Amino acid sequence: MDERQAHELLTKAADEVVASAGLSERAERRYQRRRARSQMVATAVVVVLVGSGIATAAVVAGNRSSPRPVSPTPTTRPRVSLTVNTKTFGSLAFVNDATGYGVAATTSGQTVLAKTDDGARTWHALAVMPARTYAVTLAPPAVKLALWGPGGVWATNDDGTHVREILRGDVAGFLSSAQRMWATTRCGRGQRCSEELVASDDGGRTWTRAIPWPAYVDAVAVSPKSAKAAYVVELPVGSSGSPEIAYTANGATWTREPTPCPSSAGSQLAVGGDGVSLMLVCSVSARDRVFVSGNRGRTWTETVALPSNGRVSALSSYDGADSAFVVGLTATVRPGWANGPLTYPTLDQWAYKDRPQPIGDVRAFAFAPGAVMYFAASTGVWYDHDGVRLLRTAGASRANAVDPHEVQTVSFVSARVGFGLATGAETGIFVRTDDGGKTWVQVGSLFGITALHFERAVDGVAWGQNEFEVTIDGGNHWSTPRGAPVNQVLTWAAGRLWAISFCDQNPACAVSRPAFVSDDVGRTWRKTAPVTPGLEDVAIVATSRSTAYVAGTSPRTNRSQLAVTTDGGASWRYEPTPCGTLDSNLAHNDRVLLLVCTQGQTASQEFSVYTSADRGRTWTASGTDPFVGGYFGTLTNVGSTFVAAMQRGEIWSSSDGKTWRRETEVGEGFWSVSTVPGVGAFAADGDDSDNPNSGLWFSADGARWAHRP
Description:
Layout (H helix, E strand, L loop, with lengths): L2 H19 L3 H15 L35 E2 L14 E4 L5 E6 L5 E6 L7 E6 L5 E4 L6 E5 L2 E5 L5 E7 L2 E6 L4 E6 L8 E6 L7 E2 L5 E8 L7 E7 L7 E5 L6 E4 L7 E6 L6 E6 L4 E6 L7 E2 L7 E8 L7 E7 L10 E5 L2 E3 L10 E7 L3 E6 L2 E6 L2 E4 L9 E2 L4 E6 L5 E5 L6 E5 L6 E6 L5 E4 L5 E5 L2 E5 L16 E6 L2 E6 L11 E6 L7 E6 L4 E7 L5 E6 L6 E6 L7 E4 L6 E6 L4 E6 L8 E6 L7 E2 L10 E7 L2 E6 L3 E5 L6 E5 L6 E5 L3 E6 L9 E5 L6 E3 L1
Antiparallel strand pairs: 1-9, 2-3, 3-4, 4-5, 6-7, 7-8, 8-9, 10-11, 11-12, 12-13, 14-15, 15-16, 16-17, 18-19, 19-20, 20-21, 22-23, 23-24, 24-25, 26-27, 27-28, 28-29, 30-34, 31-32, 32-33, 33-34, 35-36, 36-37, 38-39, 39-40, 40-41, 42-43, 43-44, 44-45, 46-47, 47-48, 48-49, 50-51, 51-52, 52-53, ...
């Protein structure tokens, strides 16, 4: 007998046992209580565990009919123009810290699949869904997104343009790992098996029963360590005892252990990042009791009591932590729970942080890579990054529109989302675009700031003379971190920031000067080994998290020198450069290191260009002055193409650093070029709003540029 035949035999035997035995009186009463309670639930009790794209959800629902696989023929849903009510999200799923999805109501009452591309700052409706659609989760690649509710499970891989039903019937819960989808369904009419757990490994084309014995399935959670590992809280049909927790490592064989929940309790479950730690919430009449286990449910420890004025409405493991969890509460009395999510353990206690305003009842969690936690509450969608929570749903007012021709410095994070500094009647205008630079709105003011860089739509740094500030909410708020590298030259690569200070008129630099690195977008910094001696008029470029180059003039010899590290700053080696006493500019295109030597900032300055294929040990001259005088602006690369943007209004490109071509001339001058991997480069010329060619320019390859008026 093969495995498939054995599974079919067990399934048939289980069905026969259920049909003959029926429900015990106690189990029947428990089911009726749960059914009545579920009919009062307006939105899903959503549990999200995201780790390597894993999301889980669990809800109790009523009026179930027999589930069955359906034809994969998709239904085309027209794009809709509706306003999303951001206070109604019952489910969230984030792909990264900028892009996410949710199920919410519109201001006119429809239920829609909604999407954000800017870290929950704004949301737009993708498709109208059935009114009782509860939740959206990330799903295996063939499905991409799955939405579910009491009517079934729907899948879309094109943001809701086409939606296909992959499971029809009364679905009580749904979750997905990287390869497998799980659904909790109600057996059909005439069947007395209560809820059953089914699974699909082929994108929803076929579903098989996952648990071979009849049971009430109360909660399901998947392990981030395995595509097929899962935990199920269930009460066997006919049992008069407490619910059990069943665990499978491979989706085929199960082990079962008792839980501390009473038989009448509903439950919620989450798995820690280690795949072993568990948190179990037992909902009883008086209050919710919470238990934790560090050994897959073999033993349990009750936590300290939750606040008495709230019931658990959402539960998740904390992304990136083996055994840390977070819960969301719904208040049992008006005006609602005010303090947002609670984390555990914090000194074996529940902890929450002060808020700038009441949060309201928390309904759902979603984690993006980097431990960015988004959560949906009755006041909107919030996020938590590094312990700071700020509202992310209020978009900028059109009354704060800024002339695109005045945007002078830019930093883009995607083809649509970018940030900038604009000139105008008020200096230090910090602006944002969500349409690729066509329109800009003022977010705030930054005084003394001349440059900025954003790693993501929420995380950025800004700096200038005696100023260095960071933001973790897209520029709504800024702060100066302790130990910030003030008066530094910055570069970045692979998520790491590098900084080194100017040594002009600083005697200490003649001895040594450390560089600094930050792996959390400027919030904390650590010193590298010192650059000895310190350099004046420095330029710095990083090519990876481990390799960086610093060029400048040695105060000892008054000659140009290159410092090179290939171990993240643990050590440096030094090479002379052909710049002599001239200033240096650096760029790298993964093939060669480019060095441009300049004589100050004069309109008639001359340039010398050199390349090195051996990390600065030897140099080859281009033989010509490619830029023919003028102020030098920005030197960077777009993929393999070098780009030199001149402050007199020219862009030059080169594939090898030896031969150069002038691509465009706009008249006033480029001060900033921002590159986005896989997208291209944006160049800003914001000096002259009367010049029709000023403003933003874009290139996908660094060689062909188009004006974006």
